[in-house]
Design a protein that fits this description.
The chain has 14 helices and twelve strands. By secondary structure, the protein is of the alpha/beta class. The strands form two sheets. The protein has a seven-stranded mixed β-sheet with strand order 1-7-6-5-4-2-3, with helices on both faces. Strands 8-9-12-11-10 form a five-stranded mixed β-sheet, covered by helices on one side.
Length: about 400
């Protein structure tokens, strides 16, 4: 074999079957081959296992899918290049012209855009309520055939808690699928409810380092199987190297999540007692209007602490600009603490009544608590709130 040929066909290295790597290798390849055309054809007919093209499946991404499904307590999973990619491809895969979606004001802004604008262009209708309006949910589902109920819990950014038992019961009775964006709660929570599909941004808690993007949809085997061809055709798949980094991050997922929750509760309690703060939104506080529901549904209350400053927008701006340890940027769930203000969170397309229902005021600030020493974070907040006052 001449050298120009050899560099494209390097010598194979076979790992003995009884010699296992502790960390699975990254299958950084687009293509796989079988030893014969007959085996290739058998695979394409679904008569034998294997891999062929990484847009459809890859061993590295598949290992991540199986792990995520187990963490959420479901049978199967599909991973995507971003969290909003998982949402978009799921919505496209589940709906058609004439279908109806029930969604909510308290929803991630890009998700609202997908439902209202993108799907709306293709004739998918929607009704948008408040997540607290159980009567409205029941009436809407009774009044018109609904394909799916799309919601979050806790909600972004003011951590309202959806009544998972009531919503899933109403959806199931109406023949609608329940689709939960479970990103804020995390992969280990809400698995005990009859939710059909869970969506996650793996960019957040799963990765934990803020250096890789990914998304996942998790559910029953038959639902994931029905979505798999659409996901492959849409092409928003997760790269194997990104899948490896996310799986590496998952090794510390529980340690990180629970440490962040401990700090988040301390910070929420501090903010609740501060004179510059009008209201704190954190489900771990007994003062949260849905604390009892959160305690019944969740093992941990999360790392997101939102609060409303008495001084409104001006105070929020002063607070954000004075903070030194909280990065002024989007996302959540990573090792560093983050802050966003109401002006960064969108929602301008909502009516005045919908904005009221969302509970986001001009002085609302959302914190994502990281892994810094909590005393340092409290000291930073103290000096920033003094400036805000």
């Amino acid at each position: 074999m001449k050298k120009p040929t050899r560099v494209n066909h390097p010598p194979p290295v076979q790992v003995p079957t009884d010699n296992h790597p502790l960390v699975a290798p990254i299958y950084q390849t687009v293509k796989f081959e079988f030893e014969s055309l007959e085996d290739t054809e058998r695979f394409l007919r679904g008569e034998r296992p294997g891999f062929f093209y990484s847009r459809a499946a890859n061993p590295t991404t598949r290992q991540l899918e199986l792990l995520l499904a187990e963490l959420q307590g479901r049978a199967d999973c599909l991973v995507t290049a971003s969290g909003i990619g998982a949402i978009a491809q799921t919505l496209l895969g589940l709906t058609k012209q004439g279908d109806h979606i029930l969604c909510f004001v308290e929803t991630y802004n890009p998700s609202r855009y997908l439902i209202r604008r993108v799907l709306g262009r293709f004739g998918v209708r929607h009704t948008m309520l408040s997540i607290e309006d159980l009567t409205g949910i029941e009436q809407t589902l009774a009044a018109q055939k609904t394909r799916l109920v799309f919601f979050e819990s806790p909600t972004n950014p003011v951590t309202k808690i959806a009544d998972l038992g009531a919503i899933t019961r109403l959806a199931r009775a109406a023949g609608a699928l329940s689709v939960l964006d479970n990103t804020f709660a995390g992969l280990h929570q809400h698995g005990g409810y009859e939710i059909d599909l869970y969506l996650h941004s793996l960019t957040k808690y799963a990765s934990g380092a803020g250096d890789v993007m990914g998304g996942a949809v998790i559910g029953r085997a038959e639902l994931i199987r029905a979505l798999r061809n659409d996901f492959g055709a849409l092409g928003g798949i997760l790269d194997p190297h990104a899948a490896f980094l996310i799986q590496r991050g998952l090794r510390t997922y529980f340690l990180r999540y629970r440490a962040q929750c401990v700090s988040a509760l301390r910070i929420a309690e501090y903010l609740a007692a501060h004179p510059a703060v009008e209201r704190v939104h954190y489900p771990g506080l007994t003062s949260h209007p849905q604390h009892a529901l959160a305690a019944a549904q969740m093992q941990d209350f999360g790392s997101i602490v939102s609060f409303d400053l008495r001084g409104g927008s001006a105070a929020a701006r002063r607070c954000a600009d004075r903070l030194e340890l909280f990065a002024l940027t989007a996302s959540l769930g990573s090792a560093e603490s983050l802050i966003v203000t109401a002006q960064m969170m969108g929602g301008r397309e909502l009516s005045a009544e919908q904005q009221r229902q969302s509970a986001i005021s001009e002085g609302t600030v959302r914190l994502s608590i990281g892994l810094e020493d909590c005393d340092d974070l409290l000291a930073d907040l103290a000096q920033a709130l003094d400036a805000a006052s």
